[in-house]
Task: structure prediction
Amino acid sequence: MKIAVDAMGGDFAPKEIVTGSVAAAKKYGCSVVLVGDEPQIREVLDTLPGWDKLDISIHHTTEIIGMGEHPAKAVMRKKDASVVVATRLVSEGECDAVLSAGSTGAAVTAAQFILKRIKGIDRPSIATPMPSPEGTTLLMDSGANVDCKPRHLMQSAMMGSVYAKYVLGIENPRVGLLNIGEEETKGNEQARTTYPLLKQMKTINFLGNAEGRDIPKGTFDVVVCDGFVGNVVLKFGEGLAKTIIGLLKEAVKEGGLRAKLGALLLMPACKKLARRLDVEENGGAPLLGVDGCCIIAHGSSSAKSIKSAIGMADGYVKGDVLAHIEEAIMKEEILDDAALTGKSRNE
Amino acid sequence: MKIAVDAMGGDFAPKEIVTGSVAAAKKYGCSVVLVGDEPQIREVLDTLPGWDKLDISIHHTTEIIGMGEHPAKAVMRKKDASVVVATRLVSEGECDAVLSAGSTGAAVTAAQFILKRIKGIDRPSIATPMPSPEGTTLLMDSGANVDCKPRHLMQSAMMGSVYAKYVLGIENPRVGLLNIGEEETKGNEQARTTYPLLKQMKTINFLGNAEGRDIPKGTFDVVVCDGFVGNVVLKFGEGLAKTIIGLLKEAVKEGGLRAKLGALLLMPACKKLARRLDVEENGGAPLLGVDGCCIIAHGSSSAKSIKSAIGMADGYVKGDVLAHIEEAIMKEEILDDAALTGKSRNE
Result:
């Protein structure tokens, strides 16, 4: 696998991005093209002994898209932005995947404009893996689309199932629709109209409504929701975890020697737990529905998260996700039925 | 204050409900009317020495509304259900507040049918206090309304502000609109159309968009959202906290003597933290917008949570929430402007 990495995107770019890429090239034996400002990239590489023995190259670009910029405008205007060029390397067949930890909006827009959508998919979705005691719950979508129509959620459910099966290795992924009650008649209009349609689908194992608590519990492998709700949940979860850890640290500090000793003794057990939850291993989220592999990494990505996000791209390519999504679209004729919602696909 | 308590509602009714009510009568010096099956209530009371010295009475009822029942149908048919009778005691001026830990749908429906809405409010909202390091973030609404129109969110913002000011004692409550980005133009249609309207309001201190992470962080005192999103967030948070605690316990168990000793030493610091976060003290959530004090308690309420929920009713009554909401409605002529959304109030 050959991956184009946006070396300039992310809070700790290019240092953490380049360092993580080198670690991934070593671990997965993949080729990495570092896209961005050559002098800056080279400066980081020079601190990493042995990188020149790996299959790593630099593709120099002159522009950067910042976090505050309007995604569509920036992608249209900055033809030489690192994320734009990295995405183009995939569309031109030069690379198999693109990874960016920069502006999510810019990465999604670049993927939509340059890679284009898969035929039969109206909107791509960000599939975020959330750790649970059972393994991973895939949150579909976590922010690419808002105000989804039922068919968008159907497409999300189908793509999430494919990813869970062929990349996460879950045989018959349990799909749930995020809602505020278990009964079919519960929820907002979006959920109530989507439920019966998910029930009719052939390519997914739909088990009914999922409630908020089911996400951390791991009751479902794929939880389908509007990107507005998914994004709020994702950021709330991140914030809650950060707040709890911060408060615990403070409590230990204030608790004196006794609490400090306790924390020290507990550390190995907690570290084991963190490893089990793969907290730092869930570095990226694939953008499903575009015609190419695009991995969105967290803005605050460390080298470790970048490494794991490149591993994710490797899994995506090896799992042949694109072909399996196309296959599912063929089987799921229902997605092509304009009569489904009484509206045409392109409205 | 005289409170009507639905003694039959909740996973641990009537035992925990009655026990918590007695503790509250002792602590707050309030009168409690226990509404439900007299023999069962009396059986619990008999285990609580000294209850007969307090201002506690029993109002016998013969029916119960179960968790699985259709709220509206059940409230209409079961005229002698404990939650219906308890709510009626408030509408008849017999009591100042009603509390139920039973079906939330039934309690909300009973309040809407029997207490009626405050004039000027289209839909009541559940105001759930979420603990944060800064104090409390009020989540408005956490499940009473879905598919909200902008004016519903405006009313929520206004009522939440009143509650935060007059009950929680926050001078100029910081109000945020839950969204997926900071900019005014971000989000779904609901958020984008609501933002400029919140900005125009006179009775709230609107600071802009809140993101998911702002809820646990405590960046805002009142976070306004559609009940669908609020309910998902609330249940997700509960589930996440439960999952983390469960996993930590497991890790301690598997970590052997060393981890057990560590946990033991850490316990006092953690208990202090739990008290600071008021975890068990946030037993209820007021239903704002109905013409009377109605407190919704969690289905799994313990005696301790019921006690704190009754304390909440006490604060609501003493804070004169109803009068202050009516006052704010008068000031906020904007809420009465049908031209606001181009639609009439009753559509």
Q: What stands out?
A: Chain A is about 45% helix and 15% strand. The CA atoms of residues 157 and 299 of chain A lie 26 Å apart. Chain A touches chain B through 61 residues (CB under 8 Å).
